[in-house]
Amino acid sequence: MLPLGRPPNVTRPARGFLSTRMDLSLVIPVRNEAGNIAPLVDEIAAALDGLLDYEIVYVDDGSDDATAAEICRLQLTVRQLRLVRHTKSCGQSAAIRSGVKAARALWIATLDGDGQNDPADIPRLWNLARAAPANPPLLIAGHRARRRDSWSKRRASRIANAVRRRMLHDDTPDSGCGLKLFPRQLFLDLPYFDHMHRFLPALALREGGVVRSVPVNHRSRERGTSKYGVFDRLAVGITDLFGVMWLRRRASRPQLLDDPAAEPHRRRETVQCAVSTEADPVL
Questions:
Q1: Cβ-count burial of 91 within 10 angstroms (0-12 exposed, 13-18 middle, 19+ buried)?
Q2: Which among 197, 217, 157, 236 has a CA at the least distance from the CA of 27?
Q3: CB–CB of 244/199 below 8 Å?
Q4: Distance (Å, whole) CA 248 – CA 280
Q5: Structure pTM?
Q6: Residue 178 contacts residue 157 (beta carbons within 8 Å)
Q7: Kind and range of the H or E element at 188?
Q8: CATH of 10-252, one of 3.40.30.10, 3.40.50.800, 3.40.50.10490, 3.90.550.10
Q9: What pLDDT tens digit does each residue of the chain (283 aa) get?
């Protein structure tokens, strides 16, 4: 089953830093990535400055290096930069959740803090989001068609994606890509559990959303080391896969119908609830 993650202890940013609602919040979870902070912030500014109103929400997931100090240093000159800190490492899903909850924009873009995702892809994803209707909600998932990782990591990812697509029918070629764009409210409506970030397309579909995969650039890591092992990802992914299957079979999406003939102060909402009737899997 899926372990329900407890909310981490966080140090929250001060209120009132940016008072107006901006277009996009970039949420970047990091742990011991001090050397990658400044280069990535520079790339984000080059891609987005003058194009849209945005903020960068870094979530420091219990780093024991100079990651937080580097972000604080850059805050002196980069007004869009914000910092949320976990008192101890709680994992990537918890870090993303903390960042989304702290975000001020209606739309969220996530990307990894190691510099392998390319911020230059964000404007293209943003244009797709702006052109989409408000309903059903849209999740845009990056697809690393040409991954710049080790052979073992690419092989493990290929196997995991094939198994996940076959069992969850999420029709997403690269669920593990860190670059995604989605409405903030859609994410907050999803069930939270540890490692949920690996299953965002399937969870968005469960919530009645639409998923679109878009090819994006992928770069080699230039600084630091990966925080996750290949076999750790596979073991955790298999366990959570069955949990997500269970969640999908328990999906229930109420549809609210207003009575146009009723007076405003007496209007009642009728609820139609569509519940999946598929048989439960044996876990």
A1: buried
A2: 197
A3: yes
A4: 10
A5: 0.76
A6: no
A7: helix 184-189
A8: 3.90.550.10
A9: 444 444 455 444 443 344 457 899 999 999 999 999 999 999 999 999 999 999 999 999 999 999 999 999 999 999 999 999 999 999 999 999 999 999 999 999 999 999 999 999 999 999 999 999 989 999 999 998 887 655 666 666 666 666 666 667 677 888 889 999 999 999 999 999 888 898 999 999 999 999 999 999 988 887 867 655 444 555 566 777 767 777 777 666 667 776 555 445 444 433 344 444 344 443 3
> How far apart are the C-alpha atoms of 164 and 152, rounded to whole Å?
18
Amino acid identity at 18: L
The C-alpha atoms of residue 38 and residue 211 are separated, in whole angstroms, by: 31
> How far apart are alpha carbons 43 and 45 in whole angstroms?
5
The domains of the chain are located at 10-252
Residue 136 preceded by cis peptide, ω within 30: yes
Cα 44 from Cα 208, distance rounded (Å): 31
Using CA atoms, how far apart are residues 279 and 16, in angstroms rounded to an integer?
A: 49
CB 87 within 8 A of CB 8: yes
- Please report, in angstroms and rounded to a whole number, the separation of the first and last CA atoms in the chain: 8
Return the structure tokens found at 231.
């076999």
Question: Strand (E) positions, 46-152?
Answer: 54-61, 81-86, 107-110, 138-143
